[in-house]
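Before a computer can learn anything about folding, someone has to put a protein's shape into writing. The three-dimensional part falls to structure tokens, numbers that each stand for a local backbone shape. The protein below has been through that process, and both of its lines are reproduced in full.
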Amino acid sequence: MNRLDRLLPDGWQGRSREARWRRSRARRVLAAGVAAGAVLVGWNALAPRASATRSITVAIHDLPAGHVLTRADLTTAQWPESVQLPGAITARAAAGQALTAPVGHGEPVTRSRVRAARTWPGASAGQVLVGVPVSNPTVAAVTRPGDHVDVFAGGKTSPIGTDLLVISTTRHAAGATDRSPLVGAGGAESPPALLVACSVQTAARLAQATQLTPGGDKNIFLALHPAP
């Protein structure tokens, strides 16, 4: 009996038929285990490895163009490193930006699909901005963003717009101008104009008055509210 046989259980030692059968069976089981391990190692070596990925920002639901993004609109998804995604943006950076085009559920949000959202201090939700050319340059010259005005047209005694917030001005007083890029650069020859915030209904009345009143801006007058 060799030294290895002495390590076997008593029932496995010796030259009896039963002991030899047990040792033979153990060898077959061991050989099968070794073969199975070799197959598993080979399979793992041949199996394709998972591609490397990175986290990107995607829309959590369908979003329309012009929508101002919030963190609730965004989530993260895994994107293959091998596939380029120019302009990738984090959810933190995207929040507060406005979409330049519709984005579908699960689509990546990139820098080319967002722009800075414009906000106008003092303007209320649902209001629109309207350019108003005016014919009394004296009042227009002293009007500043943040002031409130009433607008009259065509000699009517009732204003077509009341307590309208002035967002920006184009004025010409003593050769000086204070122009907003949204109003336009007119130089000394351009009529004074204001950009005001108002309701859609008031905007329609202002547009109609400008179109139908003879002389256009020559018949649009302002009444400036005194500062509180």
